[in-house]
Write a structure and sequence with these properties.
elongated; 19 strands; 3 domains; Pseudouridine synthase; 9-stranded mixed sheet; Archaeosine Trna-guanine Transglycosylase, Chain: A, domain 4; about 300 residues; alpha+beta
Length: about 300
């Protein structure tokens, strides 16, 4: 089985599920998952997890993200982007660049955002976009999101190109409409590119055709990002030979049985490896019991029992 993460550049016209389906054919492997939906018209960074790395899909989805977006003022649509049906158009001659910039920057910080009907969010087991396509609108609870920073890159009204650093769960389409509503002109999103998802940057992202060529040449491991790199910010430790079996069974580990560089802090998390350098999982230090407790195991049971750790 192939284990690791691919930094994929999702192109326009593909859904995130399309990317996974194509990669299954390219790699010949079924166990693949993506780390956050991108609309078909959007493009950019989409980390995709293979094999054991699918265990961190949710973790990667939760990371902050960066987008480049083009806001079009004066137009409101049912999808909150230019692909949708136009609901209303208003003149924009009355607003100035200074007013627009001040309004946009006013969205920095926390704000309550109502998820759009055309989204993959589920309510009562149904995806919102499925209901929207049936002509239905349901009540959605607002969610608190955080806009860490907005940088205006270009302004040629009624269009504004901007870079947005934001928390997970932020809908840039919705923010574009909210900006337009606050300005009194209405607004929607004309273009969206995700340039960063956590530690994954657009400069290193690979298109699907490129991945297919790399696989055909037998060089997939050259671009496969190791699973443990997700936890590179955590200190590492290695179990001794005697403690290794305890770790493989998910049991607590003693300090004496671990090689670590410093005295652990209460609750501190570690990435733990076996004596041969294979990644076992994440442990945290229980100061009261003076031992390390398992948080998440990344060695599969069949690998442990067979001794094939990769």
């Amino acid at each position: 089985m192939i284990n690791g993460i691919l930094n994929i550049y999702k192109e326009k016209g593909y859904t995130s599920h399309d990317v996974v389906a194509r990669l299954r054919k390219i790699t010949g492997q079924k166990k693949i998952g993506h780390t956050g939906t991108l609309d078909p018209d959007a493009e950019g960074v989409l980390p995709v997890c293979l094999g054991k790395a699918t265990k961190v899909c949710d973790l990667l989805t939760d990371r902050d993200k960066t987008y480049e977006a083009v806001l079009l003022l004066g137009r409101t649509t049912d999808t909150q982007d230019t692909s949708g049906t136009v609901l209303e158009e208003k003149p924009t001659e009355g607003i100035t660049p200074e007013q627009t910039a001040a309004c946009i920057c006013g969205f920095e910080g926390e704000y309550d955002q109502i998820p759009p009907m055309y989204s993959a969010l589920k309510i009562n087991g149904r995806k919102l976009y499925e209901l929207a396509r049936e002509g239905k609108t349901v009540e959605r609870k607002s969610r608190r999101v955080t806009i860490h920073r907005i940088r205006i890159l270009e302004m040629d009204l009624p269009r504004v190109k901007m870079e947005v650093d934001c928390s997970k769960g932020t809908y840039i389409r919705t923010m574009c409409q909210d900006i337009g509503d606050r300005l009194g002109t209405g607004g929607c999103m004309e273009r969206l590119v995700r340039t960063r998802s956590g530690r994954f940057e657009i400069g290193a992202a690979r298109r699907l055709d490129e991945v297919a060529e790399i696989v055909q040449d037998g060089r997939l491991r050259e671009i496969l990002i190791p699973l443990d790199s997700v936890f590179a910010d955590l200190p590492e430790g290695a179990v001794s030979g005697r403690e290794a079996q305890k770790a493989f069974n998910g049991n607590p580990l003693s300090k004496k049985g671990l090689r670590i560089q410093k005295e652990p802090e209460p609750g501190e998390r570690y990435r733990i490896y076996d004596p041969d350098g294979h990644f076992i999982g994440i442990y945290w230090y229980d100061a009261d019991k003076k031992r390390f407790e398992l948080e998440k195991m990344f060695l599969d049971p069949d690998e442990i029992s067979s001794g094939r750790k990769n």
